[in-house]
Amino acid sequence: MSLKKFSELFGDLDSINSTNNKIEVLKNYFLSNDPIDNSWAIYLLTGKSNKRFISGRYLKNLFSQMYEYPQWLIDTCYLKVGDSAEVITLLLKNKTNSRKKKLSNISLNELLSVTIPALSKLNEEEKNLEIKNLWETLPEDNHLIFNKILTGTFRVGVSIGLITKSISKLINIDEEIISHRLMGDFKPSIDSYEFLINKNINLQELNSKPFPFLLANTIEDKIFKNSLNDFQFEWKYDGIRMQLIKRLGNVSLWTRGQELVNESFPELVEKMSHIKDDFVLDGELLVWDFKEQIPFDFSLLQKRINRKSPTRSIQIKYPIIFIAYDLLEINGRDIREIKLENRRIELEKYFSKWKIKTENNISDIFKICDLIFPKDWTDALTYKEKSRENNTEGLIIKKKTSIYSSGRKKGIWWKYKVDPMQLDAVLIYAKGGSGRRAGLYTDYSFALWKDKELIKFASAYSGLTNIEIKELDKWIRKNTIEKFGPVRSLKPEMVFEISFEKIQISKRHKSGIAVRFPRITKWRKDKKINDADSLENAYELMKKIS
Amino acid sequence: MRTKQEYLIRYKDGNLYCELADIWIDPSKPVKKALITHAHFDHFTFGCEEYISTKETAILLKERVGDNIKIKTFEYGEEFKINGINISFHPSGHILGSSQIRFIFAEEKWLISGDFKLQKDQTCKEYEIVKTDYLISECTFGLPIFKWNESNKVANDISKWITNSPEKTSLLFCYSLGKAQRLLNEISQTNFKGNIYSHGSIHKMNKSYRELGIDIKDTIKIENKKKIDELKGSLILLPPSLSKGSYLKNFKNIQTAFASGWMSIRALRKRSGYDKGFAISDHADWDGILEVVKKSEAKNVFFHHGDSEALSKYLVEKESINVLLFGS
After folding, report:
1. Fewest C-beta atoms under 10 Å: which of A27, A203, B98, B312?
2. Pairing outcome for strands A333-334 and B23-25
3. Among B311, B28, B145, which Cα is nearest to B301's?
4. CB contact under 8 A, B144 and A73
5. SS3 (DSSP) at A63
């Protein structure tokens, strides 16, 4: 089976909008290709291999060097296209048309398990020549895929859910089972594909794998019509959502992104392995302020996420806690089908047992989430508003009678997030977007007043509709003061409402403040630049919150 | 070097103008005398006292806007004189009747490329290489990322796109004059043998092409109240203006595509809102522009209709060709 088939699949998936058609196309692809190529296809489509062999910049330099092509011209083209792999693919059309070399017809498996890994063993010069050789021997239709894999930018509008559905359709087995099989680190091989499409469900093999996560939906007004007693209320923590699994004595920590992160949090794995029972817990990992009994800021957690095998001093400096909110399995018994309120009873029961019976003290690293008991919906709102005081994002509201299904199922869990903080700011810079937004100015920088000067305080990309983006793009082109490469400085005229989650002191920024998750929530055409907020307003906001 | 005022042809109020002959080229506002390179609406405006074009362009224009315009026609290559300037039309390969316009005055040659392409197109005369001293060229696709595939390859892709979804109605959006006829001509040579329908605006142009001796496959004029079942598996050609709004509600179970040179870029394809994009253009790609610049032997080149910064820099650096800027 050739790479060409995969290129066609990519083209189809890229141009089909309907989910059902995508599933059909995938199913047909799996039916007509080798198990090994299928396993690679799944690996690529689910974004599990975003390993970057060379950077986009390197790719562009290489092309420039190999074909004596002006670098500035490549850069100009990049502004229009927004993707290094695609720019080089398009430019290659001019270079490889007259080629004489025999075209190779390699398989997806060969490309990914032999050709590309072999590149990293070569010295730079050999590597460059080999890439050029591949450009000239691979059929033109495959260049985009090849360049994208090389630069680790292979992405297509296919979710893991879609792969799950198509495999499920292919072999006629429940999506849950497939979803379960796809969890964790899927390694491309004939075996892993055959395991995936195995019609016999083997419980043994599923042992270390987490259950599909149940996700919360944004709150809807209609929920307030229900009786408060139908729901369980919890704080919404801003940490890493995780399933903590202990089966047959082994502990595994799985993130929602299906990563096994035992190595990053060895102290948790160690402590939890002393518990006598087997279990699957759903919860949140946080860096915890044990004095105040609230989480530390997410930025501290970030210091732990990407660090494998943290030293003892790191473990002490950034103490973690796992807060469980649900018990999904106990001593081999899957209890996801029993009601939440009963699962909660079980969770509390086992937690007290473990606290007393476990040899090492576990409560310095593990607890179950506290419940909140608002008197009425207005009271719930008050709790939500107070959530900033204890460093949480709001409330999670769960239906007491619900079972633990998978995905973002409607009507089971809701998130009731605290309203964001907002400031009105002036647009001062714009930069060209990339990917889908190439050729448009979509990356914006905003400023606040300090005396009579506008000081940059945040950059934002999201929040405008496509129509607004186009309108603003036009305005930007007409109101540019200066161009610096891809960035334009703009006439201060447009005011936008910027919302963000957190505001804190930052020495790195000229404004002296940093905000988290800034986004545009309104184009304030009704406001003049003098109506925009000042840095002083921002400092006041910060004071109010801390 | 001469000042901008002294050039035979210059930019005035955003249009190309020859003062010596008091004549405008494709003006966007009413003037006394207008030379028209081709019959697309962005090259034509109502209200000029007199138009001058090729015979084909005149016929297509009248078909589109009515007989109520005064239009003088010349054959390709036929020279005529205005105020001592020799003027002639030459095929530009863009659409039927499209032309480049050459001016000769005091032994100095000027060539306005008009919209042009070098690619093969059985529905119009092939681009003619015309030698000149000054070249005014369009550069709509003036970046090397634009490199057109052979049009029969694109037509085969379109054919595959339709036949792969036999349960659907395939709506292909394209400009009603030129692009639609070229596509029809190409698609009729592919494996797709199903019904082809076209919108009234396209249907009308097909007829004119046929009357001018171009072999265009017969299509069925699409009526608003067609039975949905009849349209299954067939192709419908529509102008891009109908892609937004309520018109599409006339159909069920459709897939849409847009045929345009811009569709070679993935981001534009995604943003366009069509299911699929076919990169086919009636303008020259990067190589085409370079070829025309070189073969025209022009010592001085002006660009318009497009982003010419990169193209100009490339020609100056790599080809040592003098690229001039119009003052507007």
Report:
1. A203
2. unpaired
3. B311
4. yes
5. helix
DSSP at A111: I
Listed in sequence order, the residues at least 6 apart from A524 whose beta carbon sits closer than 8 Å to its beta carbon are A424, A495, A496, A497, A531
Chain A residues inside the 8 Å CB shell of B270: 436
Tokens of B38: 């081709």
Determine whether A119 is exposed, middle or buried from the number of CB atoms within 10 Å of its CB (0-12, 13-18, 19+).
middle
Contacts of A51 (CB under 8 A, 6+ apart): A152
Q: Which stretches within A96-202 are classed as H helix? A: 108-110, 116-119, 124-137, 143-150, 160-171, 175-182, 190-196
As to burial, measured by CB atoms within 10 angstroms (0-12 exposed, 13-18 middle, 19+ buried), residue A157 is middle
DSSP B28: S
pTM of the predicted model over 0.80: no
CA distance B271 to A467: 11
* Residue the block writes with tokens 């395939």: B170
> Under an 8 Å CB criterion, which residues of B touch A?
143-147, 264-271, 275-277, 286-287, 309-310, 313-314, 317-318
ipTM of the complex: 0.91
Number of CB atoms found within 10 A of residue A389's CB: 10
Tokens 């890229």: give the residue.
Answer: A14
Measured in angstroms, the CA of B66 and the nearest CA of chain A are apart by 35
Closest of A435, A460, A482 to residue A79, by C-alpha:
A435
The full DSSP string for A249-316 is TEEEEEETTS-B-GGG-HHHHHHHTT-SS-EEEEEEEEEEETTTTEEPPHHHHHHHHT-SS--HHHHH
Both tokens of B219, joined, read: 């299509």
Distance from CA of B276 to the nearest CA of A (A): 5
Q: How many CB pairs under 8 A join A and B?
A: 63
Rg of chain B (C-alpha set):
21
Q: Check: CB of residue A244 under 8 Å from CB of residue A391.
A: no
> How far is it, in rounded angstroms, from Cα B260 to Cα B278?
6
What radius of gyration, in Å, describes the C-alpha atoms of chain A? Answer: 27
Edge-first strand order for the sheet with B134-138 is B80-82, B85-91, B99-105, B108-112, B134-138, B300-304, B322-324
Q: Could you identify the residue written with the tokens 């060379």?
A: A54
Cβ–Cβ of A83/B267 closer than 8 Å? yes
Contacts of B123 (CB under 8 A, 6+ apart): B95, B96, B178, B181, B182, B185, B209, B214, B216
Q: What are phi and psi for residue A432, nearest 5 degrees? A: -65, 145
Tell me the percentage of chain A whose pLDDT exceeds 90. Answer: 48
Q: How far apart are CA B236 and CA B245, in angstroms?
A: 17
Residues of chain B with pLDDT under 50: 328
Q: Where are the beta strands (DSSP E) in chain B?
A: 9-12, 15-18, 23-25, 33-35, 50-54, 71-74, 80-82, 85-91, 99-105, 108-112, 134-138, 169-173, 196-198, 220-221, 235-238, 254-259, 276-278, 300-304, 322-324
**Per-residue model confidence as pLDDT tens digits over A479-538:** 988 887 788 999 999 999 998 878 888 888 889 999 888 889 889 887 888 889 999 989
The whole-angstrom distance between B317's CA and the closest CA on chain A is 10
Contact residues of A toward B, CB < 8 A: 14-17, 70, 72-73, 76-77, 80-83, 86-87, 90-91, 93-94, 435-440, 466
Q: Which residues of B touch A83 (CB under 8 A)?
A: 266-267
Report pLDDT digits (tens) over A450-477: 988 999 999 998 888 888 899 999 999 9
CA dihedral sign, ordered B73, B74, B76, B81: negative
pLDDT at position B213, please?
95
Which chain A residues have a beta carbon less than 8 Å from that of B172? none
**How close B310 gets to chain A, by Cα (Å)?**
7
> Dihedral through CA B94, CA B99, CA B105, CA B109, nearest 10?
30
Looking at the DSSP bridge assignments, the partners of residue A414 are A217, A397
